[in-house]
Amino acid sequence: MDDVDKCLEKLKRCELLSQATIKDICTRVIDVLLDESNVCEVDAPVTVVGDVHGQFYDLLEIFQIGGECPDTRYLFLGDYVDRGHFNLETITLLTCLKLRWPDRITLLRGNHESRQITQVYGFYKEVVQKYGSADVWSYFCEVFDYLPLSAIIAGKIFCVHGGLSPAVLSVDQIKLIDRFREPPSEGVFADLLWSDPSDRDGFNLSQRNAGHLFGKDTVERFLHVNGLSTVLRAHQLCMEGYQIHFDGLLATVWSAPNYCYRCGNVASICEIDASLNREFNVFSAAPEDRREVPSGQAKQVPDYFL
Amino acid sequence: MAAAVPLAELFATPLVSLNRSRRDVIEISSTAELSDAFSTLAENSITSAPVKDAETGKYVGFIDVRDLTSFLVHFGAHIDEGNFMVADVCAAGAGSVLDNVTVSYLARRNPFKGVKADATIGDAVKLITTAKVKRVAVVNDDGQAEHIISLSDMILFFATHITAFPESFINATANAMFGKDVENVLCVKATQTVLEALTIMDDHKITGIAIIDDDSGAIVSNISGKDLRKFIKNPTYQQLHMPVVEMIKALRQASQVDIATPAIVVYPTTLVHMIVKKLAATKVHRVYIVESESHFAPIGVVTQTSIIKKVATFLPADDA
């Protein structure tokens, strides 16, 4: 693992790896991910991280605040890429951490870990700009196909990127999904990555055209059937960094401060101790003197649309 | 979901009960500058607004984002190069090639159809299908528009009460109800320019078009009325000549915080009630029918208007 350590040192300086090295790392991490269930079992204590979206310097802030991996056990809920200026550095760092310490970091799949979405929201474009071709994008898309879909912390806290599905009452049903593919636009797989909580009871169609809106009653039923205590998810911007729903039965954690470098929000990480007490550690964007502005990189969003 | 209501009762529902926005009708004066008229649409997130003649006080028609499409196409055809803003050209006045294109000129192309305050949903359905309008104005006794009811308002209503319709309708498939109509699915290739896309839309008088991959023909995304509203906030010559897919990507990145899928599609086997609910939930004006997940080329399109036309076939005999 000496080679991975060297990669990690380079990445923490925000330096990209060679295309050949990335290909090798991606191939090796797929072997690790193959052994993981669609529903990973994660021990406590653990720190849960929401959407990061290529905000590399804010990811480094997370490790400053929460502790470095492997000292701190981490569970990431997906959406590592798109929107930010350093999608490549972000996903490469996380992939190397997973390869180096597979038992100390769990990476779930978010709705942005998809060929269709990354072609629209920035990751694909960044790869072509930085490497001159889309090969590295296709290596990571293959890694995305192997990311697990959910996790349960200490048998009690269900973690997923988006939310619940009308087609799933038991966690065992999630274990049966064939996840090794591009996410479909409908069905349980799509629901887990795209759904959002709602004030309306039951399941309803979502404005996102994927996933469902799910109400408090569906969360109560799901937790009861599976002997769980709460749901922890990401997927939606929270201006305060996190949001508690349904009298504490569900929480959203959001980990990209000043999202898209203009939303002005704070972010948080959810620290869960051995007794499953939950604390949201709120933080702001990395200070200016600790981040680089991409040089020579075309603006991802022209000013005239802001 | 609301309990099933008899269809006759559904159609007898007062039209004004569909007005969700509860805000005053936004109107535009016939003397307004074109750029101000388009800005009004964008700033208020509306697709159209009634135009009132400044002298007579009567409604001339509606100005619509489709008019902006026509305007930009006309502008794009007459300007060879340069860094012009459309707003500058609108304000140019005498000597401009677009001198005769006024708010009134554009509004007369979209007729103002008003109904009285006691009009029903059935009345609106009939008006939409016979007069081919996209919205119905509810006017008071003085002829003043008090509510504008859109196709989206009506689709939401029918989605909520979908079980009122016969099973043979709501459980029909997209293929059976709307057929395979590839020739009439208007598309633009991803690398074609924004101007080329707008030209196709203007030629066919539509507010939406599918964007397809140059090689595979699969739907990548689409241009919608919402995109046009955002586009008109600050259009420039360069944007008109960008690849249309790059324009849409930039628009979506800038405007969406919690994203939706890039393309909104249904399949030949999707049932009608799901299509109506999807239109209501996503608030889009059309969904494209694609063959399957692996063959994503469009083979048909279902619009709000095509749903309303089907609904019209259930109007009571004396209303139809």
From TrEMBL, chain A:
Enzyme Commission numbers on file: 3.1.3.16
Coiled-coil region list: none
Transmembrane domains' residue ranges: none
Taxonomic superkingdom: Eukaryota
CDD domains: MPP_PP2A_PP4_PP6
Keyword entries, A-Z: Hydrolase, Manganese, Metal-binding
GO molecular function list: metal ion binding; protein serine/threonine phosphatase activity
Annotated InterPro entries: Calcineurin-like_PHP, Metallo-depent_PP-like, PPA2-like, Ser/Thr-sp_prot-phosphatase
Residue ranges of every copy of the Serine/threonine specific protein phosphatases domain listed in the record: 108-113
Pfam families registered for this protein in UniProt: Metallophos
Reaction equations catalysed: O-phospho-L-threonyl-[protein] + H2O = L-threonyl-[protein] + phosphate
Family named by the database record: Belongs to the PPP phosphatase family.
Protein name: Serine/threonine-protein phosphatase
The organism of origin for this protein: Thecamonas trahens ATCC 50062
From TrEMBL, chain B:
InterPro entries recorded: AMPK_gamma/SDS23_families, CBS_dom, CBS_dom_sf
Domain of life: Eukaryota
Domain CBS: 20-81, 107-165, 181-240, 259-320
Listed Pfam families: CBS
Entries under SUPFAM superfamilies matching the protein: CBS-domain pair
The entry's keywords: CBS domain, Repeat
The protein's name in its UniProt record: CBS domain-containing protein
Organism listed in the record: Thecamonas trahens ATCC 50062
